[in-house]
Fold these 3 entries.
Entry 1:
Amino acid sequence: MHRVVVLALEGVYPFELSIPVRIFGTAAGQEGEPLYEVITCSLDGSPVTTSADFAITVAHGSDALRTADTLVIPPFTCGPEEPRDWLPDELAGALALLPADARIVSICTASYVLAAAGLLDGRPATTHWNEAGHFQRAFPQVQVDANVLFIDNGQVLTAAGVAAGVDLCLHLVRRDHGSETANRVARLCVVPPWREGGQAQYIARPVPEATAATTSATRSWAQQQLHRPLTLAELAAHAGMSVRTFCRRFVEEVGMPPGQWLAQRRVEHARLLLETTDLPVDQVAAHAGFGTAASLRQHLAHTIGVSPTAYRQAFRVGRRAE
C-alpha cells in the first residue's frame, strides 16, 4: 500500500497538517479497501507545538521517512529570513532518509524547505502569493509562479496556501487512481472535486451581497448540459442577466471566465467517461460537448498532456481492478 508520511515541524499549522490524512485517508478502491496508509511524524518523535494554542502528539520520528512513498510537509511558523535557516541540520538529515523515488509535496510556505534543500532548483514552483516576492529573492534559482494553485513536477510538487493543499492532494489521488476515485473522495470530504493547478490562487473579489443574484444555479444547470453547445447568451439568459453582467459576476464568484470554466467541466466529464465506459473516443467527445474527437484530443493534451486513448489505458476502472 502507498504510504504517505506527513512531517510535522515545530509551529505547524493545524489545518494544513490535517489535509493529507483527510484526503488520502478517505481514498478507497472499488471494494472499499484503503488505497493509502497515512502516518504523521516529527523529527524526533516528540510532541510538536503548533501555530495555535495547543500541541500535537505523534507516534513516529524521522525514521518513518525511510518508508515514505510520498512525503507531505505542511507549513509552519518560522522567523529567520535567511534561506539556510529553513533547512537546519536535523531537518536536512531527515530528508536524506527518503527513498530516491519518493514523491515530495510542500503545502504553502513549506516550499521554503524544498527550495533550501535544492529540490526546486531550475524548476517551476509556487508558494503562498503573499510570500512569493520574498521567496523569489531568497531562491533566485527557482522559477516562482505565484498565479497558480499548485505545480506538479512529477516527483516534486508545490501547493499554494490552505485550500490549494486540498486541491493538490486530490490531484495526486486522481493521478494515482483516476477521476472516479478522486471525485468520490471529494464528495465524502464535501470539497470541490477539481480545480486546475493553473487556476489563479488569489483573486480580490468581495463576498456578494445576500440579495445579489448569483451564477450558482446557472453553473449547476450548465453541468447538466455539457453534451451540447452552450453560448454566453444562453448562460446569461438562464441567470436572468445581461451577458456583460453575467460575465462580470461569474468572474467575481468563480475566478475565471465562463468559457474557461465550462471547458474545465467538459474535460473533467470526458475523463470520467474514459475511465468508466467503453464509449469510443468520438462518442466521449460528443457526450462531453467537444463535438469532435480531434477537439477532445486537443483539450486533453493541453490539460494533462496525454491523448484520450493513453488516458483510458492508464486509468480505466476495470483495468485497475484486475
Entry 2:
Amino acid sequence: MSNNVTQSTNNFPEFLYRYRSNSTRYACQDLKQAIGSRMAYFSSLPGQNDPFDCNPSFKTSSAQEIVDYFKKHRPGKLIVEEETVSKLFPRVSSPGERRRIRKAYRPNLVNIERVMHTGEALLQEQRRKAHICCFSESWDNPLMWSHYSNSHRGYCIKYRVREDLMQRFDDRFPLKVKYSSKRPKLTMIDLLKFADAVKGKAGNYSQNEVLNALAYQKPDEWEYEKEWRVHSLSEPRPGYKAISALEPVEVILGANSDNRIPEIIRRRVDERIPISKVNLSSQNYSICLKPA
C-alpha cells in the first residue's frame, strides 16, 4: 500500500530514535525484531496514551453533499456496506435478506438522512484499521527516557534514516508529527474520500488531510517529543511490520539500566552495532553517552 503522502515536505533528520521499556515481556522480542529484521511494533490508534492523540473530532456533512459525492465518485454504488447492515439490523442473519436491505439504501436524500448517524462510526472504523510506530529526533531528552523507557531503565534504538531506500520501499517511511492547540476536524466527505483513496478509487485525491488528522497531529503540550511516525493502513491488528527505510545502527541503554544488560543485549544484536549507555552530567541537567 503506497503512502500517498508527499515526502518532500519533510526534511528528514539523519537519525531517529525509538525508546523502549525493559519491563515488558516483549522487551527482548522488540530488540531482536528491530536489529535482526528491521521490524518494529505498530500499535493501534485508539491505544495511545493521550485520548486526544489520533482522535479528531467529527463534523457531519450535509445530506446533499453526500448525495453529490456518490453521484460523482460512486455512481451506481449503494450507501451502506454489508457490515453496516449487520450493525443496523443485528437480528437479520440471512445474507439474501441483507442484500435486499442494502439495495433499499440507494444514495438519495431520504436514505442518506437515514444513515447520517453512522458517520462518526465510520471515523472510528478508520481509526481501528490504522496503526502507527513512533520515533523521536532526540535521544538526549531526560523526559523521554522517563516516560517511554521505564524511568531510564530501558533502552533506545538509534536508526539511520535511509532516504535512498524510500525511493524503492515507499510504503512505510517516517513523517513528522504536527503540534497544535486546535483539535483537527473531519467531515463525512473527508472520510468517504479517504476510504476511496485507500481502495484506489478516488483518482488524485490526497490522503494528507485525513492522515494528518488521524495519525500525525498532537496537542502542542507534546512538542518536546520531536516525534516522527510511520503509519500502516487497513491492517487487521497491531503487530510487527518492516520499515525498510530505517536502519538500526546503535543501542543506547538508559542511565538506570542494570549492569548485566549489555551482555544480555549483545547476545541478541549484530556484533557490528555498538552499545552505549547514558551518562549523567555532574555539572548540569544534561546527559551524554559512554561505551557500555
Entry 3:
Amino acid sequence: MQHKDIWRGLDLLAAHNGLSASGLARRAGLDPTSFNPSKREGPDGRPRWPTTESLARVLDAVGAGFDDFAALVEGRRGGSAPLIGFAQAGRDGYFDDAGFPAGAGWDEVRFPGLGTETVYALQISGDSMEPAYRAGDRIIVAPGADVKPGDRVVAKTSQGEVMAKVLARRNSRLIELASLNPDYPSREFKPSEIAWIARILWASQ
C-alpha cells in the first residue's frame, strides 16, 4: 500500500460508516484534525503517514479489522460469511443439494473480499489435513467454484459425512480424496456416493 492508498482507505472507511474523516478521528478519540488533508503532507511536501496506533484505534472504533481495511483499499467488498462446525455440517438442513448454505443455525465470520461469489465458512475438526489446516482453523468454501484434481476441497458423502481433503482423482468411475497428513490413507468413492464437492478458497489460522 502506498501513501495515497492508506489515506484513501481511511476516507472510504469513514464514508462506509457515515462519517467524515474528522468524524472518524473523533469517534476513535483522536484529534478531529488528525486526518485532515492538510495533515497528509508536511510543509516541505513530504508525505505524512497515519500512525499504526491511530489506524488501530479507528478500526476498533468502527468494529472493523485490518483485512476489512485492506479490502477497501483494494476495491474489494468485505462482509460476513455463514459459519458452522464440521459436526453440524454433517446434519441435514444445513446445505442444499448443490452444497450451498441453507437453513438456520449458522453463525457468522468476518471475511474480506467476498466479491459476488457465494461462500461459507467451516471450522476444522480433526487432524487429517495437518499441517495446512489444524483443529479450530476456519476455511472459506466456495460451492460454485470450478474444482480440479489437486484442489483442496470439502466433500459431503450421500451418508452425511463431511470432510476436508485434496481431490486426487475424479472420473466417471471413482472420486479419490487424499489427506495431507500421511497418517491418513486416501479414500475412494463412487460418484454416486458423493453428494457434492466444493473448493476451499482460503483458511484462517
